[in-house]
């Protein structure tokens, strides 16, 4: 069952974007210093560097590293490359179609949670920025989508701890 409950269905439509998303980890920029309070810039994705393995949403790309040596030896998603375990920034991307019949309706993109500093683009247009780990957020994407055509949602994420400042003051 989705967000729209049966009594609302005559008035509201929904589509779920869970499933396979493209993923591109982003390396830390040269010279960036950890724990100085300024997070590294998130470089834009490179069109030729998307991973061959799909990211299964909902799941974090580093889910296999969650045990950090504490507990059993497990991999939740054996298909995820080992390099994803240490990635602290990355891009997720998925295409979707908005039915032409939805023209004139308000479209809301709902995220249950994105762990870190997230920027969201639809068809190259910025539609949301959110900094959190556990809470949901939404973006009105009505003006960014193409009704009756293919749309692309892209989410850039920087791990929250990249914003830490452990310097002490005087």
Key words describing this protein structure:
mainly beta; six-stranded antiparallel sheet; two-stranded antiparallel sheet; 170 residues
Bulk shape: globular
Radius of gyration, taken over Cα atoms and rounded to an integer in Å: 18 Å
- The number of helices is 0
Largest sheet: 6 strands, antiparallel
Span of the ends, CA to CA: 55 Å
Mean pLDDT: 91
Q: Helical amount among residues, as a percent range?
A: under 10%
**Count of strand segments:** 8
- Main structural class: mainly beta
- Give the SSE string: EEEEEEEE
Task: Please report which band the strand proportion falls in: under 5%, 5-15%, 15-25%, 25-35%, 35-45% or over 45%.
Answer: 25-35%
- As residue ranges, the low-confidence spans are none
- With strands numbered from the N-terminus, the spatial order across the biggest sheet is 2-1-3-8-5-6
């Amino acid at each position: 069952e989705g967000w729209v409950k049966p009594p609302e269905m005559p008035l509201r439509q929904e589509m779920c974007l869970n499933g396979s998303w493209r993923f591109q980890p982003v390396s830390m920029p040269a010279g960036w210093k950890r724990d100085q309070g300024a997070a590294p810039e998130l470089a834009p994705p490179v069109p030729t560097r998307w991973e061959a393995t799909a990211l299964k949403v909902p799941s974090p790309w580093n889910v296999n590293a969650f045990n950090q040596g504490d507990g059993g030896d497990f991999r939740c998603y054996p298909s995820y490359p080992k390099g994803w375990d240490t990635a602290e920034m990355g891009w997720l991307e998925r295409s979707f179609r908005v039915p032409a019949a939805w023209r004139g309706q308000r479209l809301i993109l709902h995220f249950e949670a994105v762990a870190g500093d997230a920027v969201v683009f639809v068809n190259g247009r910025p539609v949301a920025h959110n900094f959190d780990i556990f809470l949901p957020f939404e973006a009105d994407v009505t003006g960014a989508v193409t009704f009756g055509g293919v749309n692309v949602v892209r989410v850039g994420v920087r791990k929250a701890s990249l914003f830490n400042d452990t310097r002490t003051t005087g």
